[in-house]
Amino acid sequence: MCDVAFLLLTFFILTATAKVPEVLPVDTPASTVQTKLPETDLATLTVGKGKVFFDLKGREVRKRTLELMAQKYKVDFSDTDMDKFALMESFGVPLQSLKQILDMKSADRSKANQPGIPKDSLDNQLSDWVQNARIANIELNDKELQIAIKGDAKEEYPAIRKVMDILQAQKVNSFSLVTGLRGKEK
């Protein structure tokens, strides 16, 4: 009986996946909707504390998006930087500061104080990230990129509205709002 218990314990430990720490932890609002987000062709914009973080599914799409951004902003990234970026989770820094984040160890990235991606009228890098991610996804996968907004429940409405306005300026009128699941009321 003891052997069986240790065998099961070993099985569950070896097959479990560790939860990757979020760069910007957000407390999503509650909802009873149970629609799941797609596993591929997805960009997630995380909004909280007045900051916006960007995440993109698919390594090759991430690399191509970074290439397009580097061309637009005339920033050079090495092949090593591209590979690190392809493996990185969400980020929230201006493109010019991205190399500093890429040079950090993955454990240190989540602890780093990232100011968020610029989204104001003078430096709207968020719009460029979304646009270039959409272009890269169509080039590589021949599919339209799905966009999800994951907002903190305590975030002020104008911050979420600003992100929605950026999407609507690019004619993206269909996007998902990420919420936490709660029990249905009786």
Fraction of helical residues: 40-55%
Which value, in Å, is the CA radius of gyration? 18 Å
Low-confidence spans? none
Q: Look at the helices and sheets and give the structural class.
A: alpha/beta
Strand content: 5-15%
Instruction: Write down the overall geometry.
Output: globular
Oligomerization state of this entry? single chain
How do the strands line up in the largest sheet? 3-2-4-5
**Major sheet attributes:** 4 strands, mixed
The total of beta strands comes to 6
Instruction: Please give the count of helices.
Output: 7
Integer average pLDDT: 88
Describe the fold and architecture.
The chain contains seven helices and six strands, in the order H-E-E-E-H-H-H-H-H-E-H-E-E. With 186 residues, the protein is an alpha/beta fold. The strands form two sheets. The chain has a four-stranded mixed beta sheet. Helix 2 crosses helix 3 and helix 2 crosses helix 6. The protein is globular and about 65 Å long. The N and C termini lie far apart (43 Å). 24% of the residues are buried.
Topology:
Layout: H1 2-15, E1 30-31, E2 42-48, E3 51-56, H2 59-73, H3 79-87, H4 98-102, H5 106-111, H6 125-141, E4 146-151, H7 157-169, E5 176-177, E6 180-181
Parallel strand pairs: 1-6, 2-4, 4-5
Antiparallel strand pairs: 2-3
Which keywords apply here?
alpha/beta; globular; 186 residues; 4-stranded mixed β-sheet; 6 strands; single chain
Provide a short characterization of the protein structure.
The chain has 186 residues and is an alpha/beta fold. The protein has helices spanning 2-15, 59-73, 79-87, 98-102, 106-111, 125-141, 157-169, and strands at 30-31, 42-48, 51-56, 146-151, 176-177, 180-181. The protein contains 7 helices and 6 strands.
